[in-house]
Amino acid sequence: MCKSAGFKFTVEKLEKGTQIKVLYCPLVDTAKELEATDWGYHFYCLSDYSIVKGFNSNIGFRRTKTLMEGCVCCDHFYFK
Questions:
Q1: pTM higher than 0.70 for the full model?
Q2: Quick check: 52 and 78 in contact, CB under 8 A?
Q3: Within 1-80, where are the H helices?
Q4: Which pLDDT score is estimated for 24?
Q5: Cα separation of 5 and 78, whole Å?
Q6: Handedness of CA 73, 51, 26, 18 (dihedral sign)
């Protein structure tokens, strides 16, 4: 996820971890154009958990909302 690829997000360092709120994701536009947001969610969004675990299994990850599901943001939270 990077701004040069079109993503818009905020980063907030908190006492218990780091909150990243993704406000715009170009992958959502692609999935909508293909009428495949369900597929997009399973292919792109669900892979976040495996990516975090593969990067560092000591990092915890939680997300309760995604743009792909129609929410106002993706609420990524990373913690130890």
A1: yes
A2: yes
A3: 26-33, 37-40, 47-55
A4: 98
A5: 22
A6: positive
